[in-house]
Amino acid sequence: MVHPGIDRAKPVPLYHQLKESLRERIEAGEWSPGSQIPTEKELAAEYGVSQITVRQALARLVTEGLVERCQGRGTFVSQPSVVQDILDLGGFSAGFASAGVEIETRLLGAGIVPASEGVAKHLKLNQGSPVIEVRRLRLTGNGAPISLQTSYMPSDLCRPVLERDLARESLFALLIEVCGLELVRAEEVLSAVTVDEYEAKILLVAPGSPAFLVRRTTFDKNGTPVEFVKSVLRGDRCKFTATLTARANGRATGMRTETGTSANPAERREQTIGIKTQVS
């Protein structure tokens, strides 16, 4: 008898149906994080498909970060992804802390550099103007890297942050408490990307692995951009959530979505979601 998760009459490949069925079972908690799922042979018998089909489905679940394959041991359910609310104006660590996730920071470098053309555009400065660059690696409490984050700030407004412990203190909080800035609005763009060789080495994944590129510009009460941040987050370890509220006229609030035109998954502008957040 064929497993109910498989319908051979559907114009959908069997490996895709199997992948979705296994995903639903994992998300339903049938197998807890870290536990081993049935072997390829056992799944093939259960679903009435070939082991090649099972192998294809599992390979895609590995790519999506739901399972991990250990040579000679089998396939295991991955630890749950880190979830963050994309409409939260707070800092990176604070956002995860509110979800009960402990984040560690490793400082990779900090100093004053000339603003590149892109950075200057986001901060509304002249190209070559001095800006503070802070490069940090974010890790979960067990030491697994999840994000490579590079922040840029106008040096004339934010120089005091260089005198602080940027591996332990929140940069978002420092801008408020040490630099005296009142942060009221942020514009954020989230893109689906693949990591390059440098990013892969830092994040401990294979080059070409899926990731999120998050670019955020934060503004003070005068509308002055005071921080531009680029974050590359592992696609297998992170998820983003948003709560949309309908207005009286039927329009949703808080989120604007744009769809890119590229069909090439290797291109960094393939699918773009523009998110605007504001606090009053």
Q: Can you characterise this structure?
A:
The chain is α+β, with helices and mostly antiparallel strands. It folds into 2 domains: 64 residues, Winged helix-like DNA-binding domain superfamily/Winged helix DNA-binding domain (Arc Repressor Mutant, subunit A), CATH 1.10.10; 197 residues, Chorismate lyase. It contains 8 helices and 12 strands. An 8-stranded antiparallel sheet has the order 4-5-6-9-8-7-12-11. A hairpin with a 4-residue loop joins strand 5 and strand 6. Helix 1 packs across helix 3 and helix 2 crosses helix 3. The longest helix has 14 residues. It is elongated, with a radius of gyration of 22 Å. The protein starts with 13 loop residues before the first helix and ends with a strand.
What are its keywords?
8 helices; about 280 residues; 12 strands; alpha+beta; Arc Repressor Mutant, subunit A; single chain; two-stranded antiparallel ribbon; 2 domains
**Which blocks of ≥5 consecutive residues have pLDDT under 50?**
252-280
Q: How many domains in all?
A: 2
How many separate helices?
A: 8
Structural Rg: 22 Å
Structural class comes to alpha+beta
What is the top-level CATH class of the largest domain? Answer: Alpha Beta
Q: Describe the global form.
A: elongated
The CATH homologous superfamily name of the largest domain equals: Chorismate lyase-like
User: Order of strands in the sheet with the most strands?
Assistant: 4-5-6-9-8-7-12-11
The topology string of helices and strands comes to HHHEEEHEHEEHHEHEEEEE
Strand content: 25-35%
Count of strand segments: 12
Average pLDDT, all residues: 80
CATH architecture of the largest domain: 3-Layer(aba) Sandwich
**Approximately how much helix is present in the residues?**
10-25%
Largest sheet: 8 strands, antiparallel
